[in-house]
User: What shape does this take?
Amino acid sequence: MIAAIQSAELGADTLILEKMDRPGRKLRITGKGRCNLTNVAPLSEFITHFGPNGRFLRQAFSRFFTAELIAFLEKMGVQTVVERGGRVFPASGEAQEVTDALVRRARDQGVTLHTGSKAERLLIEGKRVVGVQLSPSSFRTGESNSVRQIYRAASVIIATGGVSYPATGSTGDGYRLAKSAGHTIVPVRPALVPLETAGDIATRLQGLSLRNVTARVWVSGKKQTEAMGEMLFTDFGLSGPIILSLSRHVVDTLRLGRKVVFSIDLKPALEDRKLDARLLRDLDEKGKQNFRTLLKGLLPGKLIPVCIDYTGISPDKMGHQITASERKRLRTWLKDFRLDITGYRPFTEAIITAGGVDTQEVDPRTMASRLVKGLYFAGEVLDVEADTGGYNLQAAFSTGWVAGQQCGSASSPGI
Ligand SMILES: Cc1cc2nc3c(=O)[nH]c(=O)nc-3n(C[C@H](O)[C@H](O)[C@H](O)COP(=O)(O)OP(=O)(O)OC[C@H]3O[C@@H](n4cnc5c(N)ncnc54)[C@H](O)[C@@H]3O)c2cc1C
Assistant: This one.
């Protein structure tokens, strides 16, 4: 939508083909319905949230970044607020407001919007795109009688998203279209995705949310990475902000068949000596309480039976009877609660898609295909993906803006 707005603003005759019954279905559910639009982190830090492919976005960000996006939204009447961690949301707290504003702005700029219109095939003559063919069902069910089977255009922007949450319309069509133009598709994988764990621990802890814990990822006995914050136990395993972030490092490792173990530090603020002093104090002050009762001061209720199982300390043992080696076992578990990761959830539950159109075949200054003239890419269809925090939407907005600018300034009809 931002690409279309930009291209129309520069005078190009612009058409959006949207295969769903309305545009922006995914946008509406972002940020739990509140739409985390972007992040105010400085560019140097922002880029690090994308991993190695972040470099590709540098030029797009240098032209249209956080400040430009916020100003663009405010011009359309969408006020924004900055929240914890630099995350930017619409002040109304409604993702719907953003979608509505984009649709309104596109219409005001004279963009034609055809919903129920699935782009099926790129029309390419020589090394130049000349239009798009719709799927047969589209021009039968499209919203307007004017929907045709073939649209000729001098520029086509593929902004079809990834393959995550396919019910929102992103079902990976863009990869097929790009491939037909000769583009390489880096294999797609679910990213920012919940993880599955071995055994019944997660089921026993289902619904438990832990704040201020550190999760460390161990691969074949070596620590790979860690994150601190909030996590959640589900019926199949782990979810919540830090798990989704860490999943970006885990999915590829699991796909290589390597063993991944999570180590949860339940007391990250207390290093071993301080934690021991705290335990000694508790056991001394509450020496006449049994272990199970004592744990209430240390852990959420659901974790108590799990702690008892892992440490092997009798729940009925009195505080003053707990030995130094038992205390050490407890300390070790509190700092290093281990869970074997056995898999990850499917695309239907993945916030984003890793992989996609190979960025080496796309000009980072314009988002133009290096293989076919007049063809552009924007958003998640590209092989770029980031952490949660507003980075993914900013990437979609920035690449869309750049592609739209380019098509608009070529002043040719675009799709
Ligand atoms: C639950 C959830 C929450 C999220 N929250 C956030 C967040 O708060 N902040 C953030 O930065 N990111 C968030 N994301 C990620 C973000 O939504 C995506 O990265 C972003 O929407 C990608 O934008 P896009 O325009 O490339 O693709 P999409 O938003 O997927 O849009 C692609 C559009 O193309 C249409 N389309 C597909 N194929 C065709 C075709 N053949 N013909 C015609 N139309 C077609 C689709 O119907 C769709 O409308 C979230 C994702 C999910 C699933």
The first helix runs from residue 2 to 9. The chain has a mean pLDDT of 95. The pocket of flavin-adenine dinucleotide is lined by residues 17-20, 23, 25-27, 29-31, 35-36, 118-119, 159-161, 164-165, 168-170, 173, 351-352, 379-381, 390-393, 396 (CB under 6 Å).
